Fold each of these.
Amino acid sequence: MTQLPYLQKANSSFIDREVTKMGDIIKRWNGEKIKGVGLVGAPLSKSSISHSGACFAPGTIRKALSNYSTYSVEENVDLLNWAIQDLGDISMHVTDIMQSQNRIYETIHRLSKENESWLPIILGGDNSITYPSVKGFKEANGEVGVIQFDAHHDVRNLVDGGPSNGTPFRSLLETQTLKGTNLIQVGIRDFSNSKPYYDYVNQHRVTVYTMKQVRQQSMKEMMETSLKKLEQTVDSIYVSVDMDVLDQSQAPGCPAIGPGGMDAIDLFEAITYLGKHPKVRALEIVEVDPTVDFRDMTSRVAAHVILHFLKGKHLGT
């Protein structure tokens, strides 16, 4: 059959032979041992205490990520040769939240057990996925530390609402999956938390950086201090990014938007710095709701969190 060089697939985007996009290097997982990055979707949002369409976020984040270039002009770094595999989404139970969370736990645990060298990037979903994800990761990787970027402590009691997106760190602490001394919270926002929950994290000796401290301190120094604290006591570090840590002007597609949040540039700086460290071995992004977003702004920022994380990993190798 005659080949027509200018005939493209329907709805295809502009093709420039000298530009490589992330979508060109992300490959579908073939079921074999994972060597490199593994993208996993955890599309759970029925556990959100407010309206949330975060179950749709893995798809919009993937789409946004695929459209960006592999090249970092700031660092003269190209991710072109990175092995990145998309494992697809974990199937959620239609009505049973705890069954859905257990599926996340089992999947992350098994993948981590069977793929010692993989670098998981988990796309939520709401923040309730953090408990089963960290639990599964920890049981396969030894003592774990978590650096949590979030406007909220997420230690709500488990009586009033069950295992929701407001309780993951309560669950991690109370099941002793995570030691309070191995949890660092960054970006905790004014008038977004209660005193009993602030007292709770203090009682568990959690390190808390409020937004006031984020504004007043160097992000690099804050991350350097955090890593020095954790690297002596843990085998691996898990980075959790709740996108509502950002100011509502930069992440409008979050269920819990609010003023006075972090600037995206500061978050990118922190994520790049963390990515360089060899003990940082997992990243999750949660609380993006595409149904209330504007032009996928929040998913685009989430995609850049992934890009800056991989850039840090590249620089650290």
Amino acid sequence: MNAAVVEIKGVVKRYGATSVVRGIGFSCREGEMVGLAGHNGAGKSTLFKMMLGIIAADEGDILLFGEPVRGSRFREVRRAIGYLPEHVALYDNLSGLETLRFFARLKSADPSRCKSLLERVGLGEAMHRAVREYSKGMRQRLGFAQALLGEPRLLLLDEPTNGLDPEAIHGFYNVLQQLRNDGTTIILSSHLLAEIQSRVDRLVIMASGKLVAEGTVTALATASGLPARLAVTPREGARDRVRGALLAAGFLPQDTPDGLVQAAVTLSQRMTLLRVLAALSDELLEYTLTEPTLEDVFLRHQRGSTWVERAA
């Protein structure tokens, strides 16, 4: 098993009498991509700032590469971290290349890598243009290039695809996959749940400053008890027989306006469903079984669920 790059243990952050992060704890291994999900105000950005040492935790410990963020060696450790904030602040009068070279000097990174970094994020042809002429998506790409300075071993990305078009999003995740394959640990927060569902190794869900669920998307969906959704298309004249067979097997079939018959299917009903579908093979034109999505899992936990599942 790869070494733990991030260790967060019982972290609390208060502003006056308000706790914005309440006892968060999880870890991330080398080369792992973890999605951090939660409603606005859940504490995601605050957690990132504590991991960077920008603000201090009131309780608990945060260790990156085995070093505490408030320790004497953290300044050195921070050079191995790349950070893309949700709102990128840039200098409009500088060109893209000048901006990246400026950040390279701040981070003591090799400025000769700036051109290749800009090309990598799709800004090769715009590197000499003033940032004031950049679209929102181009500014986001420039912010991403800034986060990649110095070949970081840990990337913290806060809503990283804001303003990106589908082609740019595809390119962005291609870069992340290359970095992950090289051993970079990545934590990204996103409200675009369908976008990250197939891309993260594991998901951490926060609500009101607390960790409410952690695990793979598949394991979380299973642990939450969310059913899959069956949709069948009966042959002409077979609708009643199809509905009757499903009902007799313990399902609750419902007709849809477009001629389908739908039913929820729990994990314990999967084998029963296979037998029913086999018996109905001459009565059906087609069927689909749709698994719960990351959005389904997320909404389950935002609706007041009290369970916490650490699913592997």
Amino acid sequence: MRWRWAAPGLLQLLTRAERLSARRTQRVREEFGCSVEGWRVLALLSDGQGHNMTVIADCAFLPPPGLTKLMDQLVDRNLVHRRTDPVDRRRILARLTERGQRFWQEVGERVRAEWATLPVQEDAEQLHTLLARLSQALADGVTPGRAAPGAGRGR
């Protein structure tokens, strides 16, 4: 499949889908006190790997000061803990706490239930594959951490 970059509205469709997705989950996220950016951070950390702040900032589409504030909030809620990287002591790694893992599972179940009501479930895997390919193609040659102003800010 060839991407129709010149097709009217591709960027608008992607932006609209992202913003409507955020709105679709807003009620559930608000019930748990979880912003879109917080959701993104928790989703990344749910893999159990531990990630440094640069990777987390890129995933959450936040500049460093915004990420610091969000991470402080997540630490204060005992959802995330930060530790010095044992391999590179200059870096800090963040991971979910046990409470954070339970929180992520509970919020995730509720969000998945909300998404399950959409009539496009049979297309979800194909859409995921296509969006992953598009994201990778767009990322090639882009400097990490240099998102366009306002990118990913939909709520």
